[in-house]
Design goal:
The chain has 480 residues and is α+β, with helices and mostly antiparallel strands. Helix content is 35%, strand content 16%.
Length: 480
């Protein structure tokens, strides 16, 4: 097998046993990037080959002395172009930040470097990370490796494609409204949104209210996913609401089985979620795999009207996204350099009142209680990870969804990703599991939501599912 075909967990073992050197891994990765990346545009601002091979040689020298930095020692890593990495442009896909180079690493990057990774560049995103389609005016669009005419999703679209094309062995990302789950589903890889507070985020302008977005891991195998989450996790005084205990990097120890696990299938929320034909059926096939192993799957319904959840979510999103964009609006001339979807987010937030946000917070509390009620009867909840198939790369976002019952117009640029808000708004861990392909060869994922702070249980389920779905997982893009 090619070096680049191994997941990070296995690659780490090969490096430590000295079956491969860090320089060999780096050269193989750079060779792979040279062949594949021009076709998909997933990795941006790649560092020079000379500098990267020199850094890999330094990692080899440490191993020769019996020293090591950690499990990621010498493993190439490209950081999502939202998270700051010292010395590399952190554009966020915005022309306004094209030349911004942070002097310090963000907390997540600090932890990954401390575990030994070598940062080789960044992965592409939509402008300001807004929207589940990774295109921007700085680098262009990232293409879906399974169909180059389609979107890769987002906002961690570059990360997903770098993974499924074996340019990276594991990847970081972040998730507000499915940004780890959507591109994972459309990339046939695992993407996990951790529990609220599991992975502390710094730098941040607000550490008290803005908790809907979180960084997290993406991988081709669950062992690598869990190991990266372990590295990213843990309390930091910089993020006072972060969780003290890390997720368990060995979630099941071979003891977890799907037998008797109770999974509640929310489906399309009784037709509330506009969903393209074929999506639900493929998700149900994944549930059938779990049932074959003894899991109990049953339909369930949220006691709170989904429309009320969306209304409360929309208020919270306005408040958080609008405030995040505010610094870029201080100069009126900047408006011409910002995409219309971001301007809409900012403008929509300008008349928002504190009392409205508090009412939405009350609704959010009621919603959380409704989710807890579902967990009294179920160990996990399931939803589609995405409501539509990957769409043409030239399309900014789906203006309507052609469901089995007719066309339904989308009233916002992100309404077609409504299925992702239930985990986010409740602060619950969620993972996108690859569940198969359409007749046209496009991948899809099913979203599994865990109980509060039950990240390790969710990883254990994913690990058990992984063993049943090798036929799906082994289907890689045909890009040479």
């Amino acid at each position: 097998m090619e070096i680049t075909s191994f997941g990070a967990s296995h690659l780490s073992q090969l490096i430590y046993s000295k079956q491969v050197s860090c320089q060999e891994v780096m050269q193989a990765s750079l060779d792979r990037i040279a062949v594949v990346n021009p076709r998909v545009n997933a990795i941006v601002n790649l560092r020079s080959e000379e500098d990267l091979l020199k850094e890999a040689a330094e990692h080899d020298a440490l191993l020769a002395k019996g020293a090591s930095k950690g499990w990621l020692h010498g493993i190439p890593q490209a950081i999502k172009d939202i998270a700051p990495s010292a010395g590399l442009p952190n554009t966020m896909g915005s022309p306004l930040l094209r030349d911004f180079i942070p002097k310090e690493d963000g907390l997540m990057v600090q932890r990954m470097k401390a575990a030994g990774c070598i940062v080789i560049g960044k992965t592409n995103v939509p402008e300001f990370g807004l929207g589940s389609h990774s295109f921007n005016e700085v680098f262009g669009a990232t293409r879906n490796a399974y169909d180059l005419s389609k979107t890769a999703g987002g906002s961690s679209g570059g990360a997903a494609v770098a993974l499924n094309t074996c340019m990276l062995s594991v990847a970081d990302g972040s998730d507000f409204m499915g940004s780890l789950r959507n591109p994972a589903a459309w990339g046939n890889v695992f993407g996990m949104r951790p529990s609220q507070g599991r992975v502390p985020m710094w730098p941040a302008t607000d550490v008290w209210i803005n908790q809907l977005g979180t960084e997290g891991p993406m991988a081709r195998d669950v062992a690598s996913l869990a190991a990266l989450l372990q590295t990213q996790s843990g309390y930091s005084p910089l993020a006072p609401l972060s969780i003290a205990l890390c997720a368990d990097s060995t979630p099941s120890n071979g003891q977890f089985g799907l037998k008797n696990q109770r999974i509640g299938w929310l489906g399309d929320m009784n037709a509330h979620l506009a969903t393209e034909p074929g999506v639900l059926a493929l998700c149900e096939q994944a549930l059938q795999r779990m049932m074959h192993e003894g899991a109990h799957v049953s339909p369930c319904t949220l006691s709170m009207p989904p429309a009320q959840v969306w209304e409360a979510w929309s208020v919270w999103r306005k408040a958080l996204v609008g405030s995040r964009l505010a610094p870029f609006m201080l100069s009126p001339s900047n408006r011409d350099k910002i995409k219309p979807e971001a301007l809409w987010e900012y403008d929509s937030a300008q008349d928002l009142k504190a009392a409205e946000l508090m009412r939405a917070s009350v609704s959010r509390t009621a919603f959380y209680q409704a989710m807890l009620q579902l967990f009294e009867q179920h160990d996990f909840l399931a939803l589609p990870a995405v409501q539509v198939w990957p769409f043409p790369i030239e399309q900014r976002w789906p203006k309507e969804i052609l469901t089995a019952h007719g066309a339904r117009a989308m009233d916002t640029y992100h309404r077609w990703m409504e299925c992702t808000i239930y985990a986010t708004f409740a602060g619950l861990p969620a993972i996108s599991l690859p569940c198969g392909f359409s007749e046209a060869g496009l991948p899809m994922g099913i979203q599994i939501i865990g109980k509060p702070q039950a990240d390790s249980d969710l990883l254990a389920l994913a690990q058990a599912y992984e063993a049943t779905a090798q036929d799906v997982l082994q289907r890689r893009p045909a890009l040479g």
